[in-house]
Amino acid sequence: MRPSRLRLLSRIVSLSIAACVALVVASAIGRAEDRPEAKLPEKPFRVLVFSATGWYRHPEIPRTNGWLVRLGREQGYAVDVTETPGDLTADRLAAYRVLVLNNANELGKILDDPQKKAVEDWSRHGGGIVGLHAALVHQIGWPWLSQLGGADFDSDSDFARARLVVDPAAKDHPAVSGQGDEFWYSADWHNHDRSVSGKKGFQVLMRLDESSYEPVRAYFKERGGKAMGKDHPTAWVHEAGPEGGRFFYTELGHDLRSLDTEFGRRHVGAAMRWAAGE
């Protein structure tokens, strides 16, 4: 056989082998694409922090906003911040699974009816709200939020170390799990005008032992401020069903001293995930 014909035959055989290999690889790729495990992971949920105020403005709000952004980055969810009431629209809220009220008090004074309705509708359709510290201060001007939160403000303490008792029924909730039956913690503590204990849909996570600190600071004692006594919830959740959605409240958050600790980061991070439905 001539050398030229040998070279041609060799080229044909090589091309045939390459074609067979390509066919096998393509078939394998096709089968891999059909497998469920080949799906990409879901995107991280998004959180919108709203920190406008209608009454007293905590000077630490901007620093807390920054801390919330960093916490989200560390724990794997995205955080945006706004103080513009006009951002609370149906279209804007649709991008978020959680709305954080960072000391956003007396919202009935600064939100108009369409903005309130947008938040209410968003919550009823699966959105979760996390309230930090003064988020339940002077909210009676917005009846829906007042009922969702379950309590309002009476007075507060100075920054103080106090004994916290975890509710036995809530010991496995991620926001308090691992803390044991009781522990000591430092913060500015609120006294509420009523307790949410026993209210339908509410679950208290932890309570303050008022014998372990001075619950009413001098400023409010002079103005008739009252302690809550033996039943002093300091963090709770509310699953209000179709009329309300999910709500998480914690007294932590007056400033970063009560947030930027091992427990504070775990507590607030768990609140975000619970509110997001995870």
TrEMBL record:
Record-linked Pfam families: ThuA
Stretch forming the signal peptide: none
Residues of the ThuA-like domain: 46-275
Name of the protein: ThuA domain-containing protein
Protein species of origin: Singulisphaera sp. Ch08
